[in-house]
Write a structure and sequence with these properties.
Elements lengths: L3 E5 L6 H12 L1 E5 H11 L2 H11 L6 H13 L6 E5 L5 H14 L3 E8 L2 H9 L1 E5 L5 E4 L3 H9 L3 E3 L6 H15 L2 H7 L3 E5 L4 H13 L3
Parallel strand pairs: 1-3, 1-4, 2-3, 4-8
Antiparallel strand pairs: 5-6, 5-7
Helix pairs in contact: 1-10, 2-3, 4-5, 6-8
The structure holds adenosine monophosphate (AMP).
């Protein structure tokens, strides 16, 4: 049966960075609600216009809009293909919707991988996070990584800060995570699905820990 894997973690924990390894290792298709929302906002669709006001202030986008986005993206993936949910679910309502949608498509929830990162490190990482834009697909770098900044500029790109990576918005997103998303871990722990991974350190180290934690869940 095709697996469904959920990736949960505070903003800046490295969820999206980790997905490259997981997609390749477990042959999954990624559904990242944050990225889908940013694409809708950039394209100026009705959903994007409605979602923008939430994203800009670091709040969770209204459940009705996210439900629509999730159902449409899962419907577009062949039933025999596994999915990696990056940034979804983020509250109890979304976890309920996910259970229902997965039951409907015959995809069991295989595991929930939770990235663990202290608040101070979240603030440090997000405060320095930039997207290299203007040189192919945008990729993420940190301002302290001089080599990455140089690589971005050499390719004709510019490191740009996401509007929701400003300090006040970072604090809000972190508070929302601790209040609304983190409690889901209790539910997934009780279901025997939870794997918690230490997200400190270099991306390669985190990826190794994550693959090891998930290998036992396959
Ligand atoms: P991310 O790229 O996952 O950090 O998401 C960026 C922003 O998009 C979040 O701060 C929320 O405003 C919004 N967002 C992404 N995923 C969700 C979701 N599952 N539910 C509600 N809002 C979301």
């Amino acid at each position: 049966m095709p697996p469904a894997l959920v990736l949960i973690g505070p903003p800046g924990a490295g969820k999206s960075t980790l997905t490259g390894t997981l997609l390749e290792r477990f042959r999954l298709v990624r559904v990242a609600t944050g990225e889908l929302l940013r694409a809708e906002i950039a394209a100026g669709t009705a959903l994007g216009r409605a979602a923008a006001q939430y994203v800009e202030r670091g709040a969770l986008v209204a459940d009705g809009l996210i439900d629509q986005l999730l159902r449409a993206s899962l419907d577009a993936i062949p039933a025999d293909t596994g999915v990696l949910l990056d940034g979804y679910p983020r509250n109890v309502h979304q976890a309920d919707v996910l259970d229902a949608v997965l039951r409907h498509t015959g995809r069991p929830l295989t595991a929930v991988l939770a990235l663990d990162l202290p608040d101070a490190e979240v603030v440090r990482r997000l405060g320095g996070r930039r997207e290299c834009r203007g040189a192919g697909a945008p990729w993420v770098l940190h301002v302290d990584d001089a080599a990455a900044v140089a690589r971005c500029r050499a390719a004709g790109g510019t490191p740009v800060q996401r509007a929701d990576d400003r300090p006040a918005v970072i604090r809000r997103r972190l508070a929302v995570y601790r209040a609304e998303t983190e409690p889901l871990l209790t539910r997934y722990r009780a279901a025997g699905l939870l794997r918690v991974v230490d997200a400190t350190g270099a991306p390669a180290e985190v990826a190794t820990r994550a693959v090891a934690a998930l290998a036992s869940a396959q």
